[in-house]
Amino acid sequence: MDRKLLIERSSEGKQSVVLPDCDVPEKAVRDLIPGKFLRREKCALPEVSEPEIVRHYVNLSTLNHHVDKDFYPLGSCTMKYNPKINEAFAASPYITGLHPFGDEDHAQAALKIYYEVEQSLCEITGMDAYTLQPAAGSHGELTGVMIMRQYHRMKNNHKATILIPDSAHGTNPASVHLGGYKAVTVASTNEGLVDIDDLKAKLSGDVAGFMLTNPNTLGIFEKNVLQIAELVHAVDGLMYMDGANMNALLGLVKTGDMQFDITHLNLHKTFSTPHGGGGPGAGPIGVKEKLIPYLPVPRVLKKAERYVMSWDHPESIGKVMAFWGNYSVIVKTWVYIRMLGEEGLRDVAKHAIINANYLRASLEGDYELPYRSTPMHECVFSGDRQKCHGVRTLDIAKRMLDYGVHAPTVYFPLIVHEALMIEPTETEHKASLDHFIDIMRSIRRECENDPETVRSAPHTTPVKRLDEVKANRELNVRW
C-alpha cells in the first residue's frame, strides 16, 4: 500500500491532503498534519553518492575521541572497551521489536533476561533483590534515597540528614537534597579514608543513612567499612553504597558482606555498555531483605515457569521511570555476565587493580601523589609540582589531547589539589599503558622546558582551547 502523502489544490487554490490507495479518511490526515506545516513545492534534496555519505560520517567519527579509537582513562567512570557481541545481541529484532506496552505472554524472553540479570547482580553483590528501572547512576542514587526515606517513614521515624564523605561524587549530595534530606559532610583522614572520629561526632538519631563509595574516589578501599556500618546501624541509619567503583570488587568482595543495605550499580560502567555521549545508562538498585517491600513497581518475578510483572506491593515507592528501564543496556549486561562467568568477572577486577597500580608506580616520580595508600582500580595524582612552571592541571589535560588520548578526570576529588584522576580499566594492555606513561612523562618534560606549549594546548584538535568563561555564559551547542 502506497502511504505517500500528496497535496492537491482545487481550482480555487484551496489546499487539501490525500493518502492514495489507503482507507484512512482525508479528514483524519488533515487533523494530524495542519496545512501550515505542509510543503507547497517539491523538496530540493541533494544527490549524494554512497561513498560521499560514508566518508562524511567516517570523518565525523574521527573528530570524536572514543574508547574504540584510543585510551580513555576517565577516573571513576570506568570507560572500558565495550565488546561488540553486546551490540549484536541488543540489535536483534527479537529485542528491538518489543513494545513496552506489550503483554507478558509476548515478552517472556525479555522478562527472563530482566529476572536473570537481577539474580546475577544479587549473586555478585550479596544483595537480596534488585530493581533495574533507574536510568542512570544518579537516578539510582535518588531511587536509593527514596527507599531510605520510605523505610524510615514506615517506622514513623522523621530523620532529616544523610552523611556523605568529603571525597564523594557530586551526585551524592544532589541526590540527598532531591530526596528531601540535608547532606552533612564527613571529613577524610591523611590516608584518604573516612575519619571515624568525625563520623562519630556527626552521628545522631537524626541521621537517615550514610552514602559511601568503596573503594572511594581516591581508589582506596575503606578498610574500616565494617566499623562504619556498625556505627551507622546503631542509630538506625542505613548504609548506602555508591557502586561507581564496583569494577574493583567484582568477584572479590560483596557489598552485602560489607553490611551495606542499599547498593547502586552502573551497568553502563562496570558491565561494559556504552558510557560516552551521555547515555544510555542504567543504575539498578539492590537492597537487603528488609527493604524489598519498598522497591519500585512492577517487580519481575518468576512463578512456576512463567515470568510476571508484579504490581501488588503496597509499600513500594512506585515507578521511577516511564517504562521498565533501559532495556538494551540490560540486555548487554546479560550478555557480558554470561560471557565472562564468575571467574571472568573476578579477572576483570584483578586486572583493573594491576593496571592502576602499574600506572601509579610508573608515574609517582613524575607527578605528586598526595595519598600514599595503595589504590585499587584508579589512582589520583596532583599537578601541584608543575605549577611552579606556570602550568595547571587543566593545561596538562588539554595537552594530552594532542597525543591522541583522552584526558583523565581533573580537579576531582575535591580533597586533592590540582587532581588528575586516572582509571585505566582492565581492558588496556601493557603496551597501551606504557604508551600513556611515555605521554605523561613527555608532558612533564614540556612543563619544565617548554611550558607555553602546554599552556596553549591543544594544538591538533578540530577545536582549539575555548574561552571557558565565555563558553559557560554563552552556550552554543550548534558548532
Concise structural overview:
The protein contains 15 helices and 14 strands. By secondary structure, it is an alpha/beta fold.
* Spatial order of strands in the largest sheet: 3-9-8-7-6-4-5
The tally of beta strands, per DSSP, is 14
Q: Mean pLDDT, rounded to whole units? A: 91
Helix content: 25-40%
Q: Any idea what the CATH superfamily of the largest domain is called?
A: Type I PLP-dependent aspartate aminotransferase-like (Major domain)
What is the total number of structural domains?
A: 3
* Name of the CATH class of the largest domain: Alpha Beta
Computed CA radius of gyration, to the nearest angstrom: 26 Å
CATH domain fold name of the largest domain = Aspartate Aminotransferase, domain 2
User: What is the makeup of the main sheet?
Assistant: 7 strands, mixed
Instruction: Write down the overall geometry.
Output: globular
H-E order: EEHHHHHEHEHEHEHEEHEEEHEHEEHHH
Strand pairing plus helix content: what structural class?
Answer: alpha/beta
Oligomeric category: single chain
Query: DSSP helix count?
Result: 15
What CATH architecture label of the largest domain applies? 3-Layer(aba) Sandwich
Which residues sit in consecutive blocks of at least 5 with pLDDT less than 50?
Answer: 1-10
| Proportion of residues in extended strands | 5-15%
Cα-to-Cα separation, first versus last residue: 41 Å
